[in-house]
Amino acid sequence: MIEKDRKYIWHPFTQQKNMADPIAIIRGEGTLLIDADNNTYIDAISSWWVNLHGHAHPYIAGKLYQQAMQLEQVIFAGFTHQPAIDLAERLIDILPGNFAKIFYSDNGSTSTEVALKMAVQYWWNQRKNDVDVKKKNKLLALKNAYHGDTFGAMSVSERSVFTMAFHDLLFEVIFIDAPAADNIEATKELIASHSDEIAAFIYEPLVQGAGGIQMYEATMLDELLSIVQQHDIICIADEVMTGFGRTGKLFCSEYMQNKPDIICLSKGLTGGTMALGVTACTEKIYNAYVNDDKLKTFFHGHSFTANPLACTAALASLDLLLKEECLKQIDWLTEQNKLFAETLLTAEFPVRLKNIRTQGTILAFEIAEGKDEYLNNVSTVFTKKALAHGIYLRPLGNTVYIMPPYCITEEEYERVKEVIIAILIEN
Ligand SMILES: *Cc1c(COP(=O)(O)O)cnc(C)c1O
């Protein structure tokens, strides 16, 4: 397998030169990934933050099989189907805020891309004459943000090693600091001075994922949202990573009083089984598109929009997620993370740890070694050592974190802790 992989495949986010052999995974079960030599690895980062209930979950697999035998895919313009309708209804029921409509796409990047276009065109649709057209078309975003890899999503993300080759091609964005007591006044002024040109504000609520699992306070975000909303700026919550229980509540936006106008979902949406994106919006946003003027149509869609299999997987994942048992497991994991953070805070290691933090099922800290950046070599070394101990971890530079599937057992969690501590001691 490895020989053919090397011959034919180009892997994501990976420098191909001197690339370590990838590990061929044959099957998964619960939190475990099992390779061709029968080694098992606890998937402590939920396979890039997507898996909620464990791998190859028989309930989701069964539902998928039934749906695949009935209808695998159909064009979603002029047609509809039960899984898409059921999923939209159930999401609108549980999303925090007054959401009215669900727009489907394929992944996290497309869900944010759709949100940005939806917000910009919302204002464009309300233009009175051509002079007005240029107004309200700028975007506001947080420094250190990550919203995906397509061009719009890259534009509203931090200018970083990920985007460096494309800087000249990215559109202009007003970046502000993640809200904190010492910058909120300056941010308030900045927003006020640009308010008539800003169409929308996009943010990862409370946890900036790919930017190094950086966390900030709910009270501060709430204050920022209230400022933004006073200026009639559309709020887009990118809950691609934080959705579906990750931060301890079903959706992270529940921590704030001020709710978004648009919400983006993917990753955990299908329990991590299939690619699917959702952009939900309020009636207000939607109504700006309902018009006799055909130019006010939202001209966006993807071949696999609302794929029936993906929607079915999402429905099955929701069944599992909303069970008492799973919600309890999320609370338990939240507690375990707090305890683990305490342990890390009080223990002595040969390396210094910085900024030990948790938010729900996520725990992160930095190893104070080299620069705080994605290319920091801590990542490669840590991943290799953890794999040798049967744990899959993938630090972002020198940011070590865990984000396990909710079904992780007590023994497995203990094992993850032991291995992290052992690596830190070895260091
Ligand atoms: C992963 C991620 C995305 C991009 O999702 P993809 O499915 O990888 O395209 C967007 N926003 C956030 C917050 C993410 O964590």
Description of the molecule:
This protein has 427 residues and is an alpha/beta fold. It has helices at residues 2-8, 46-49, 58-70, 82-94, 108-124, 151-155, 184-194, 218-230, 283-287, 308-321, 324-346, 378-388, 410-426, and strands spanning 25-29, 32-35, 40-43, 99-105, 138-142, 173-176, 198-203, 207-208, 214-215, 234-238, 262-265, 277-282, 353-359, 362-367, 391-392, 399-402. The strands form 4 sheets. It has a 7-stranded mixed sheet with strand order 4-12-11-10-7-5-6, with helices on both faces. A 4-stranded mixed sheet has the order 1-2-3-15. Strand 13 and strand 14 (362-367) form a beta hairpin. Helix 3 (58-70) packs antiparallel against helix 10 (308-321), helix 4 runs parallel beside helix 10 (308-321) and helix 7 (184-194) runs parallel beside helix 8. The chain starts with a helix and ends with a helix. The site of pyridoxal-5'-phosphate has 14 residues, from helix 5. Substrate binds at residues 48, 146, 267, 301, 394. Catalyzes the transfer of the alpha-amino group from S-adenosyl-L-methionine (SAM) to 7-keto-8-aminopelargonic acid (KAPA) to form 7,8-diaminopelargonic acid (DAPA). It is the only aminotransferase known to utilize SAM as an amino donor. GO terms for molecular function: adenosylmethionine-8-amino-7-oxononanoate transaminase activity.
